[in-house]
Amino acid sequence: MNPLFHMFFQQYRFLVNRLNDTLKEFGLYNSQWTILFLLHQEGPMSLTSIWKYLNVEAPTITRTVARLEKLGLVERQQGDDRREKIVSLTPEAIELFPKVENSIMTFEEKMVSNLTGEEQEQLAMLLKKMKG
């Protein structure tokens, strides 16, 4: 294995674990926050659109959305097609969102605090180059 990938995956796991620690006070996990953030940015979306956008298996998204429904943060409605389900944020999620977002922003600032603005830009450029 290329040592760069090992380092990248280790850092990814570290960041996800720390992010989950940050989200714990809200009873959320990274995977749930990702969907809430996406719906906040894009508005209501079909389950298919969510899993395609996030590059995650359909059953995983379905389970995560079901958990968010139980938490009262999203709701599913019938789409134009009988089989299509549209997912949207509930009023509770819209009210909670700024609090969670502030915690996330504090977390992100802490994680990049040792990088200069130039280094952050360089890292972003390098990660984009890896898409191939």
Short description:
The protein contains 6 helices and 3 strands. It has a 3-stranded antiparallel β-sheet with strand order 1-3-2. It is globular, with a radius of gyration of 17 Å.
Description:
- The chain is mainly alpha-helical.
- Helix content is 67%, strand content 9%.
- β2 (74-78) and β3 (85-89) form a beta hairpin.
Q: What is the 3D form? A: globular
Mean of residue pLDDT values = 94
Number of strands: 3
**Which blocks of ≥5 consecutive residues have pLDDT under 50?**
none
Query: In terms of structural class, how would the helical and strand content be classed?
Result: mainly alpha
Q: Output the helix-strand order.
A: HHEHHEEHH
Q: How far do the termini sit from each other? A: 18 Å
From the alpha carbons, calculate the radius of gyration and give it in angstroms: 17 Å
What percentage of the residues does DSSP assign to strands (E)?
5-15%
Within the largest sheet, what's the order of strands? 1-3-2
**What's the main sheet like?**
3 strands, antiparallel
Proportion of residues in helical segments: 55-70%
Secondary-structure topology with pairs:
Layout: H1 3-23, H2 30-42, E1 45-46, H3 47-54, H4 58-70, E2 74-78, E3 85-89, H5 91-111, H6 117-129
Antiparallel strand pairs: 1-3, 2-3
Helix pairs in contact: 1-5, 3-4
Characteristic key phrases:
three-stranded antiparallel beta sheet; single chain; mainly alpha; 6 helices; 132 residues; 9% strand
